[in-house]
Amino acid sequence: MIYPIGHRINVIKYACVISAVLITQSCGKRIANVSPTDPIPLVEAISGEELYNERCADCHDGPVARAPHKIVFPLLGPEHVLASMNDGIMQAQAAGLTQVQKTRLAEYLGERPIQRNTESKLLFCDEKSDGVKQGMSATEIRSWGMSPENTRSISSDIAGLTKSDVGQLELKWAFAYPNAKQARSQPIVSQGEIFVGSHDGTIYSLDLETGCANWTFNADSEVRHALSLGPWEHEKSEALFFGDNAGNVYAIDRLDGELIWKTRPNDHPDTVITGSPKLYGDKLYVPLSSKEWASAANPAYGCCTFRGGVAALNTFDGATQWISYSTDEPAPTGQVNTENVPLMAPSGAPVWNSPTIDAKRNRLYVGTGENYSSPASDTSDAVLAIDLENGELLWHYQTLEKDAWNMACYVGGPGGNCPSENGPDLDIGASVILANLDDGRDIILAGTKGGSVFALDPDQSGVLLWENKIGSGGLAGGVHWGMTLLNDSLIAAIADTDFGLDPDYQGFPGLYSIDIDDGKVNWHSPAEDHCPEGSRPMCDHGMSAAITSIPGVIFAGSYDGSFMAYDDSTGAILWKFLTNRSFETISGATASGGSIEGDGPVIIDGTVLINSGYSFGTRMQGNVLLAFSADGN
Ligand code: HEC
């Protein structure tokens, strides 16, 4: 099929050449010299509406899955539209536009002028922490998965909260992440101190009791996941390990946030660290994901060369021990796209979950996403077992063959860089869980965006033991970010967003309890719908964020901003709080809640922590960290 975007980009380039001849300067140079305050030169005197029609209308005027319709942009606001072009998901679509043009486009779509950033205040604690505080609780949650096996279950000792307390939970404090449109980095907590990342790349040490800040550290780019806390230079201190949206990995001192080392283990420019790096022994296992799926929407881009995988780094100095790639090295396929750009494969199979450690078998497990180009490999949408010592791929179990997909496919099927296999993009996004059956056998539990949960046998190279399709699945469907294990039950949240594209689509969003012996559903609690009138499509009642359990209770949030505690024996809702609103925070700044998405809740020392606000995928923005405790004390 014809790729309309490519042709439009050519028209703009052509206009550039003509103006360059007439105005005697080279087009690229003229544009590069323009600053937002300069008078607008003739060549730029193209209106926001014209720019929109040239560059954006093909995807945003029509029923393109996930691409927000034009009418949504005023809700998003011009600042968000501008950010999506400058350093967000629309960079490729806005490539070559000047800052003046982008601003004009954003103000046209957002239907008001850009408001300059007003910094939210940060309230520092009166006295800085000088190491382990006296009299503080010794309880800790040191990683995203709460255990090497990624069970996301918290013991009653650590939680400090029982099922009977849950009904009394009240807001204790709210913290506004400054300069943030989303809040998705799950906090970790050690000895009364919270460590958390944020949208603008700042890492915060916060006091668990009051939410005041001890120190901050600035990473280069957004930190999306939970930090990992562990030993560094044994006698000295411990370190916090994490990655950012630009592919950097860091170790900083837990006492004062000083940088210990920084490295970029994977040299692909589009590398993103989305899943939480896993600390085990003296190694940090870093999952490698990317934004190349978005770069591929530009038909001038040579698609695709990113390989997902896991990098093992020394915790001491960050040196790379090995990288285990999920695909072979990409090579030219001999085919070209509609713009005559050569295509490369295999690519993709990114890892955007936190690795799961199997200490007994000396290996780790990760789930992979789709391939970015055709032909697909047999390692996409798969569980991989990787040797902890040398990175060797020991076995893999693929849930879906021939799933090659990237953002170019949004414009209605193959063309440009959309691979011939054209999806359906049903990744394994959530970390797998290593569990133990009553008869002593181990079992690997996993879930897909296709809506299936399944179990593999770690002693038989990942043979399938059972599978149960509990959701309909889709681009934002099925199991998304993280499940939890509670006794003999796997608890899974199902997202199943209905984009209204297929009139026959029926989603089954909600929470499910599954017997890990046979995969049968114990109970199903359909998602309640808290979306106010007129708030769709940004509001949706799908449940996508990672979930967490304490004995007897499961905590889970929704795209619509509701945050619930469920009874583990029946699925009944014991407590609920709607976070999609504004909050007065401890610093006096007003914070806003929105969608709960990505990482999940943390329960420690009687305090329940949850982030609210998510701007990716056109969810409801926000920038708040909320702390609850029984009676708000
Ligand atoms: C090839 C199709 C395509 C084109 C062309 C395109 N977009 Fe998008 N856009 C999308 C899709 C798909 C999404 C949703 C991405 C996701 O999953 O989050 C999106 C999301 C967005 C968002 C929301 C970003 C967020 O953080 O959620 C904004 C704002 C946006 N686009 C603006 C633009 C502008 C401005 C242009 C023109 C310069 C443009 N888009 C061109 C497909 C396109």
Describe the protein in words.
With 633 residues, the chain is mainly beta. Among the domains are: 4-110, Cytochrome Bc1 Complex, Chain D, domain 2 (Orthogonal Bundle), CATH 1.10.760; 210-423, Methanol Dehydrogenase, Chain A (8 Propeller). The strands form ten sheets. A five-stranded antiparallel sheet has the order 1-3-4-5-6, with no helix packed on it. A hairpin with a 5-residue loop joins β14 (309-314) and β15. The radius of gyration is 24 Å and the shape is globular. The structure holds heme C. Heme C (HEC) binds next to α4 and α6.
What characteristics describe this protein?
binds heme C, 30% strand, disordered N terminus, 633 residues, Cytochrome Bc1 Complex, Chain D, domain 2, Methanol Dehydrogenase, Chain A, five-stranded antiparallel beta sheet, 9 helices, mainly beta
Entry summary:
With 633 residues, the protein is mainly beta. It has nine helices and 38 strands.
List the helices and strands and how they pair.
Blueprint lengths: L3 H20 L3 H7 L14 H8 L1 H4 L12 H4 L1 H9 L12 H12 L29 E2 L14 H4 L9 E8 L11 E3 L2 E4 L5 E6 L5 E6 L9 E4 L6 E6 L5 E5 L5 E5 L7 E2 L5 E3 L2 E8 L1 H4 L13 E6 L5 E6 L5 E6 L5 E4 L10 E3 L4 E5 L14 E6 L5 E6 L34 E4 L5 E6 L4 E6 L5 E7 L14 E3 L2 E6 L15 E6 L5 E6 L21 E3 L2 E5 L4 E6 L5 E6 L3 E3 L5 E3 L9 E3 L2 E6 L11 E7 L3
Antiparallel strand pairs: 1-3, 2-38, 3-4, 4-5, 5-6, 7-8, 8-9, 9-10, 11-13, 12-13, 13-14, 14-15, 16-17, 18-19, 19-20, 20-21, 22-23, 23-24, 24-25, 26-27, 27-28, 28-29, 30-31, 31-32, 32-33, 34-35, 36-37, 37-38
Bound molecules: heme C (HEC).
Heme C binds next to helix 4 and helix 6.
